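dude i think i finally got it to work??
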Amino acid sequence: MIRSLIALMTTAAIVIAETRLAPAAEPVRLGILGIDNFGSVAYTEFLNRPQAEGVFEGVQVVAAYPIGSDDYPESDKLVEQWKKQLLEMYRHPQDPKDEVPPIEMVNSVDELLKCCDGVMIFSMDGRLHLKQATDVLKAGKRLFISRPVASSVEDAVAIYKLAAETKTPCWSSSQHRFSTGFSGMRNHPEVGRVIGCDVYGGWTANAPAADKFTRPLHSIETLFTIMGPGVASVTCQSTPTAESITAVWKDGRIGTYRGIKEGAVKYSATVFGDKGVSTAGIYGHGVPVNGIVPTTDKYVGYEGLATEIAKFFKGGPAPVTLAETLEIFALLQAAEDSKAQNGAAVKLQNLAE
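look at this
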């Protein structure tokens, strides 16, 4: 009996010791495709944090293919700027324990795919995204595409059809969707059930050709964040001072977007509910309390989306559905059609069919 107990205890001690000495699991390796978007730097700062804990533990950007766009304004300049920051990130800390392995700059998509488990596309020019996403999805690598998913309805549909065909998880989002000042307005205690929402934000009149279709995207994502999907029809009016979109939901609720072309620009909203009416928080900050919008709290502009990216690449579901992203693109197209028809109401197409 005693010998058996001693043997059992010895075996247990060996197992515990081996468990303690076992190396940590290898991190999920991420690659970046296109780096002329600041997001390539902003999200890597979270994903490559030294001695990361919590959601950012176990995921790391290991490589990047530093390409830009031949005809996107200042793309070459931005590539060099963000390439330098990526190469130097966390490389020479005061405490050597905080040093992170260097990010490898590769020369092709094939090289990138060979050294990573998942890919993030950060090319500013949305016209490139379909080709880039095709290579990644056919390789079966999980994919996040920085806003916009594409520069046209046709390309957005093609990307998501390929994701479905290859059974490869893929999604895209604006960082505004995960700003707590916006996401926290659904079921906000001072508002209750959301009945309507008026969103406002910038609308750049001289946007590059690649951005013209998707320039309202930050604010339209905010509108969907607060209202949810379910738009039935859209009207749009355009003047030199504003782009005005009104969307009617299938349940009769109304949401609007005011694209500011002239004057001061701020990204926020007014939310109407069954308990009250409140302004939303502003981008990067929290929800209002007693009607007062916080501006001195911790700024978390990119952290919300970075958190969702980390969870996704560690095996979690895409936090934004295929159907909702395509509905946003259907709204953008309906707004263009309405504007061309002098503000007539246009029904949304179901692009997810």
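The chain has two domains: 28-174, 177-347.
im so relieved honestly
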